[in-house]
Amino acid sequence: MNNKNVLNATLYVILFVSLFILIQSLSFKGGKELVSLLGRTEAADGDYLTKNGETLAITAVISSLATLILFIATKWAPVSGNYLKTRPWAVLMWSALIALGSILPLQFLAEKINLTMPAGTEEMFESIMKVSWGYVALGLMVPIAEEIVFRGAIQRVLQNALGEHKRWIAIVISALIFGIVHFNLAQGLHAFLIGLLLGWLYSKTGSILPGFVFHWVNNTVAYLMFNLMPQMNDGKLIDFFHGNDRMMYGGLFFSLCIFVPSLLQLIGRMPKGNK
Fold first, then answer.
1. Please, which pLDDT band fits residue 275 given cuts at 50, 70 and 90?
2. Residues near 124 by beta carbon (within 8 Å), at least 6 away in sequence
């Protein structure tokens, strides 16, 4: 590990995070101005925008596209088809399954430590979830943009600077940053824990694809649950099982029966690869 390399990596990480936040902020501001130009004067303080799911979703898609273009064009997050040439279909399948197996346990953990999203953030997400553009934003574009930035750029430069034997430091740091940029404790803890898994997937494969599959499944399930079971949106995990503790713990056990075998399969199937 070279101190100069670590310093350069640190400066790059600061740059990447700053640009990511700046793009998000400018996109939100642009969306607010667009709504205002269309005659919605309520947009002046941003309240209308947070309640207008379609506009907010399109704003998220645009910011994600801008992020992808910037980080790929500058080669801050190198992208190639080399990993797909290894035919990693089993790894991608187990990545999807481990995502499914993690959903209930993570929700259970969040409820046990009594973490909830701020009311404004929750209202914003609900407005996005209600529109079809919401899936394009949260199910597709946001996951791939976040994987490009936090794994393909941030974790990559940290791993290169710290060396293979300290890759877990890079994983933890990138996951921690991933959690912090969500700007609230409930989402932040969830993002940090998922970020550890996503970082591990990236460190083992050298590709963002397994992490994107995980991210996509996680966000897709959230979108489907919101729209197919709207009565559950304000409820707890126990409500999903009709107030039956035994069924809830059975569901958690079943989830772990997916999560643990998937984890073991991934451990056995993920040699170090190329992006």
1. very low
2. 50, 56
